[in-house]
Amino acid sequence: MFARTDRLLLRPGWHEDAPALARAIGEEAIARNLARAPWPYHEEDARAFLAGWTEGHPSRFLMLQRTASAPRLIGGVGMDRTESGEFELGYWVARPYWGLGYATEAGRHMVDLAHTLGISRLMASHFADNPASGAVLRKLGFRQTGRRPLRASLARGEAAPTIEYARDIAAPGTDGDGDEGAVAMPRAARWPDRLRSDWRLEAA
Question: In this protein, which residues make up the domain named N-acetyltransferase (predicted)?
Answer without folding.
Answer: 8-170
